[in-house]
Amino acid sequence: MEDTGGRAKVAAVAVGGSFSVEQPLWIAISAFRVLTVLYAVGRYAQHEEHYTNQPGAWIYMAVLTAWTLGTIRVFWSKQHCGRRWLIADLALVVVGILLTRAFDAPHWVHDGDVTLPTIRAAGSVLGFAAFGGWLPAAFAGVVVGVANIAEAGKLDSSNLHNIVLLLLAGVAIGFVIDLARKSEETLARALEIQAATRERERLARDIHDGVLQVLTLVKRRGTELGGEAAEIAGLAGEQEVALRRLIASGLGPATPAATRAEPVAVDPNAPHDVRTLLAPLADPQVSLAQPGTAVLLPNRAATELAAAVGAALDNVRRHVGEQAQAWILVEDEPDAVVVSVRDEGPGFDPARLAEAEREGRLGVSQSIRGRLRDLGGSAEIFSAAGQGTEVELRVPKQQVPKQREGK
Asked: Where is the Signal transduction histidine kinase subgroup 3 dimerisation and phosphoacceptor domain (predicted)?
């Protein structure tokens, strides 16, 4: 029997907790074993007069009941229930089926009287199904079926009907658990790929905000200076192109929001005033308009929003000019913080954004839109030829602890 439970357990942990699709099934099987053994005891007590060896039958029922109740915790989860427990449980059921022929009156056996374990046998088959899937369940069902035929001394329509139902139930449960395990494994692999893609996007943003910005500056300033500096500028330009291609080739499709770890050990949910992060961005070329009261966001959201604003200003300097005028407007709405960055440059065709992303220029797609997407917000870019560009960044407000009065 193939042990697929280990992979399913790993998959369940990867999904984000101790939940496993198998656990509710094991609990149901454990409860089923208890209920069916109580039914078997009650059924035997009702038909005790059918048996020629009543003390022997009572001893077996007592052993079966004690075993079932004593192994409740064992059959409560796969972590505790192994092959040996399942084989022992199946063996005890088979012994009870065969003892029925010895303890029951011959004419009752011939008339198709039910066996001592009766439907308690199904609990053993279901245990094999939950443990190893449909194939072990089919094996256990066949063993129980052969024992029933041996007890009856013949294969008639009655025991054939019971055997078919038992096999169908066991195999069906086995198929369900096999499918559930494969689904968990597939989900775990998808989450691993998604996590890797998120990390690549985060690294791409950091590289864009650091290395690529420096290479672009060296290329531009070196070209302006000429001479040996122009040669350095050419090398910087080549490295910039190569690095952009490398980043673009390593990025997967866009993914949902992800949590980005900050380099400073600060509570990411602590409230932070966005204004304190945007104030350093103001200079003679950048005008900042913001409310007179604190604009609070969780620390991580405020930091990422400020970084996105910085990336938008970098785009203004790069595409419009170092002395280009830009305006930052901060709006504290009831359900969101909105920051707009506007310039009066020549503007551009919005279709160029997709083209730039394909070429590895990720300033907008990652440093701006990627950051806002990770925060559950949005970044809208409005531009037209000759009408400048406006970047609107919207971050939904999360639960931020209210400041105490007088603070």
From this structure: 199-219
8 Å CB contact between 64 and 40: yes
The three-state secondary structure class of 378 is strand
Tens digits of per-residue pLDDT, 55-82?
A: 998 999 999 999 999 999 888 888 888 8
Report the first-to-last Cα separation within the chain, whole angstroms.
66
Q: Which two tokens stand for residue 196?
A: 């890797």
pLDDT, one tens digit per residue, over 326-360 is 999 999 999 999 999 999 888 876 666 656 555 54
What is the number of other CB atoms lying within 10 angstroms of the CB of residue 373?
A: 19
Considering only CA atoms, which of 89, 163, 95 is closest in space to residue 124? 89
- Please tell me whether residues 174 and 305 are part of one structural domain: no
- Domain assignment present for 195: no
Based on the domain organization, do 186 and 275 belong to the same domain? no
Secondary structure (DSSP) of 125-173: HHHHHHHH-HHHHHHHHHHHHHHHHHHHTS--HHHHHHHHHHHHHHHHH
